[in-house]
Amino acid sequence: MRNLLVFITKYNAFFLFLIFEISSLVIYIKYNSFQKATFINSTGKVTGSLYAEMDVLSGYLSLREVNDSLARENARLRNQLKSSFYVDTLAKRKVDDTIYKQQYTYIEAKVINNSVNRSNNYITINRGSKQGIGKGMGVICSSGLVGKVVFVGEHLSVVQSLLHKDSRFSAMLAKNKEIGYIEWADNLDPHKGFLKDVSNSAQPHIGEEVVTSQYSLFPAGIPIGKVSNLKTRAGGYSLNMEVRLDVDFSKLQYVDVIINKFAPEQATLEAQQKKDE
Are 127 and 254 in contact (CB under 8 A)? Predict the structure, then answer.
């Protein structure tokens, strides 16, 4: 208390000036209608701005509660959707390849499990043998090549992703049709692959598209990626090209499983050929 009295005594002139200044402003505004209206209008704007900022702050602080409420409501609504129940029927669409006279059937499937950060990555989809899925079928998405089916259950299947050390698919340069094979770079980068054993006469360029060839599990021309770097194998007989993959495997939600009606016949003939060799 003593220190407070000393402080007031020391700065008494300043406090008196402040009191007189405030008093004069109050009297000036109170007894002059124009200044009074201006003051009220100004304070109204300031108060309104403060209330708006407080409302934004209050809304931000309550976001977690709102999000939890929305999540509960979404869960309730999803449980009422038809997609929440298992459906045996599914839509198939057929595509006729007029060049190679092959017919393909595409079965839509939803990704229910996926990995991208391992040496051997797999994808689980919600379709199985009951829907016509078989081992060895190719899998694509809207962006391009995904992998092939390796395990099949009655209602679920497992796909060996392109991001797997044993994955290898016939591929070609889209411009000059020079054929090689595509595989993962195997450096835990889910965006990088290699197109290997392409003829040294191909003369590819950076940015050229790489697609599936007619010798793969897939229809020719399915996107794979774009050439991002060129490397020559020792001896100079072929080219190995680094490819920036088109598919973002970390964001896969839906895929298409390809049924090639000639695949069983081709597999049988090629198996007989191997026996004769």
Answer: no
